[in-house]
Write a structure and sequence with these properties.
Layout (H helix, E strand, L loop, with lengths): L2 H12 L3 H9 L16 H11 L6 E5 L5 H10 L2 E6 L2 H14 L5 E5 L12 E7 L7 H11 E14 L12 H7 L2 E8 L3 H14 L1 H8 L1 H18 L5 E10 L3
Parallel strand pairs: 1-2, 1-4, 2-3, 4-5
Antiparallel strand pairs: 5-7, 6-7
Helix pairs in contact: 2-8, 3-4, 8-10, 9-10
The chain binds S-adenosylmethionine.
S-adenosylmethionine binds next to helix 1.
């Protein structure tokens, strides 16, 4: 199965799963009911992203690897900026488009199915690009180049992402995003490990286990994939064998 098919089949399963929704809610994220991420975003991080991007009407923000679109819609609603969400999983884009129709009437938000490293959006079309918990699945140099192309000079990129602490779990996982983005013309503004991430992640894994029977009944194979990730993550926490850290990375595209 390709990575794209893996994400797509997961979204087809979880988009309507009440048990998945209950597990997300149990990890105390403070998110509104309509926002059900496939990530470890939370209300405090979304407030930080919104404040950092300093967007207004007339600006465009791209939510790259947007999943079902909630994080970008949150930012668009609060700032008045136009939103373009991009993800390669068609099931995610279908759900995001439905969300935008409900919450952003009038065409403020649109969602496209595309590869994050080759969006085919116009150059310098965005004041900001956000990317929640997805960089680690994408070739870092290629996506950094595409984000540099999409941003206006002085535009801001903000990401939450996993970094490898040793041997990379995925071929696309890197140890430090900063040099890769600096190589294509970004200036790092802020870079730090995300305090509280492990707590939210482990609470989510415990909630998945608590809802295991309901998940299996609702979504079958996809439940087994989620439960395997939860078991693995909880096991690693017990043995204190972390292989990744979660970071917040904010960078500015230098003037041309
Ligand atoms: C962990 S999910 C995060 C989704 C969303 N940002 C959120 O907060 O709910 C990672 C997302 O990255 C997307 N993705 C992974 N690789 C991609 C690629 N090469 N191009 C576009 N999207 C990609 C997946 O389809 C998935 O929606």
């Amino acid at each position: 199965m390709t990575a794209r098919d893996g994400f797509d089949s997961m979204y087809r399963a979880i988009n309507t799963s009440l048990a998945y929704r209950a597990a997300v809610r149990a990890s105390e994220t403070g998110l509104p009911d309509w926002l059900v991420p496939f990530s470890f975003i939370n209300a405090a991080l979304l407030e930080l992203i919104t404040a950092t991007l300093r967007l207004g009407t007339g600006d465009t923000v791209i939510d790259l690897a947007c999943g079902t679109g909630g994080a970008g819609v949150w930012v668009a609603e609060r700032t008045g900026a136009a939103l373009i969400g991009v993800d390669f999983a068609p099931a995610a884009i279908e759900a995001a488009t439905l969300l935008a129709e409900r919450r952003c009437p009038g065409g403020q938000a649109r969602f496209i199915t595309a590869e994050a490293t080759a969006t085919e959006l116009p150059a310098a079309c965005a004041s900001a690009v956000m990317c929640i918990d997805a960089l680690m699945f994408i070739d870092a140099a290629a996506v950094a180049t595409e984000i540099a192309r999409l941003l206006k000079p002085g535009g801001i990129f903000i990401a939450t992402a996993a970094e490898s602490l040793g041997e990379a779990l995925l071929p696309t996982l890197v140890a430090d995003y900063r040099p890769i983005f600096e190589e294509v013309g970004f200036r790092t503004l802020r870079y730090e490990e995300l305090a509280g991430h492990d707590t939210q992640r482990l609470a989510f894994y415990h909630a998945l286990e608590k809802h295991a029977d309901a998940l299996r009944a609702e979504i079958g194979d996809a439940a087994e994939r989620l439960l395997a990730e939860a078991r693995n993550g909880l096991e690693r926490a017990v043995h204190n064998t972390r292989r990744v850290r979660q970071v917040l990375f904010i960078a500015e595209r230098a003037d041309a």
